[in-house]
Amino acid sequence: MSTVLVLIHHDDGIIRKPSLELLTLARRLGEPAAVVHGGAGEALIDALGRYGVTTVYSITPPEPPSYRPMVEALALADLAASTAPAAVLVSSGPGGTEVAARVAVRLDAGIITGAVDVTTGPDGPVVTQSVFAGGWFTESRVRRGTPVITVRPNAVTAEPAPEPAHAAVRTVTAEPVSAAVPRVVASRAKAATGRPGLADATVVVAGGRGAGSAEGFAVIERLADALGGAVGASRAATDLTWCPHDLQIGQTGKTVAPQLYLAGGISGAIQHRAGMQGSRTIVAINKDPKAPIFQIADFGVVGDLHTVVPALIDEIRKRRG
Ligand code: FAD
To answer: Of 173, 189, 213, which residue is a domain's last?
Structure first.
């Protein structure tokens, strides 16, 4: 069976959810081999084994004082050149897309970005992309070289392998790249909010133009905190600078698929739906009973979010004691 190289991102040994999703997808295509940058400790190797990884390529030095995507891209490209995998899988997002693009250039291979599914075909992996705001799906395949594929977070549900594998670790010495690196990461700061990231959250509370103002948007954040969830937003809310752009959900923002998606003051434009319609349960609060978001909502409250959301927060607090 061919191997599938998967770039793994982790926080101090805890594998990030999008990487677990990549491993789940990789098992459908072949034998997952993980490429880890930042030291592969025992717990991390065990966790990779539970997701069916048979080989872990540990890139050293663990944290060189250089720009990480470049180090990852060089290591991945070298490994792909020497092991001829069925595909290279990287999670979508600004960092991942940069790595994948660099790998494809170095391999002189084709790249497909933003996949929502990958299956095996007679001539190699077949990649599904969602286009026109989720209205259509396309299937494509790479015709030149090792397919390099970026996969959208939340497109696949992460599931451990039915049989855990024993992962063998191989150390890969990273090429010195500092001279060629245009940027240097001086320090990394964790987000100060203490909230989960959008990609990892099981609950997302998103606000839109209906919040009325930056101050009004704060009620959305308070509900997210009461539920231990992440904050998301429509493009209208981010364009109005009521919250940072990286919280935008939709066609030109992030794709989320939490257990619970709560939308307050969001109309449900097709471009917004493209980023959240895979959520397990959708709750919408909107004062317009004809708002399109109600067409996809499992539960809807017709009302002013400035009345409904504070009442909801009070109720959650009461029930939690
Ligand atoms: P609106 O459409 O203005 O809706 C506001 C809603 O709030 C209304 O339904 C209203 O009834 C309700 N409301 C008002 N006051 C209250 C209140 N007090 N209480 C309760 N409800 C209230 N959008 C995205 O979100 N993500 C994207 O990635 C994205 N990409 C795009 C890409 C392209 C190429 C284009 C053309 C557009 C894109 N958009 C995207 C924009 C999208 O078309 C919509 O304009 C946007 O989603 C609207 O945001 P909204 O629902 O917050 O605002």
So the answer is: 173
Pocket of ligand 1 (CB under 6 A): 208-210, 212, 234-237, 248-253, 265-267, 269, 271-272, 275, 285-288, 291, 304-306
Contact residues for 76 (Cβ-Cβ < 8 A; gap 6+): 5, 7, 35, 88, 90, 99, 103
Please state the pTM of the whole predicted model. Answer: 0.77
- Quick one: tokens of 215? 């101050």
Tell me: do 53 and 161 sit in the same domain: yes
Q: What is the CATH number of the domain that holds 219?
A: 3.40.50.1220
- Give the range of the structural domain holding residue 301, as residue numbers without chain letter: 203-320
Same domain as 154, residue 32? yes
Mean pLDDT of the residues in the chain: 91
Q: pLDDT, tens digit, for every residue of 128-152?
A: 998 877 778 999 999 999 999 999 9
Nearest CA to ligand 1 atom 16: 210
Ligand 1 centroid–CA 237 distance in Å is: 8
CA of 116 to the centre of ligand 1 (A): 24
Binding residues for FAD: 209, 234-235, 248-252, 265-272, 286
Q: Is the pLDDT of residue 22 over 80?
A: yes
Rounded Cα distance between 186 and 173, Å, is: 22
Index of the ligand 1 atom closest to the CA of residue 252 = 28
Is the Cβ–Cβ distance between 99 and 69 less than 8 Å?
yes
> Do the domain assignments include residue 178?
no
Of 92, 209, 241, best ligand 1 pocket probe by most atoms within 8 Å of the beta carbon: 209
Whether residue 69 has pLDDT greater than 90: no
- Quote the CA–CA distance of 59 and 170 in Å, as a whole number: 9
- 302 and 248, same domain (yes or no): yes
Does residue 66 register a pLDDT over 60? no
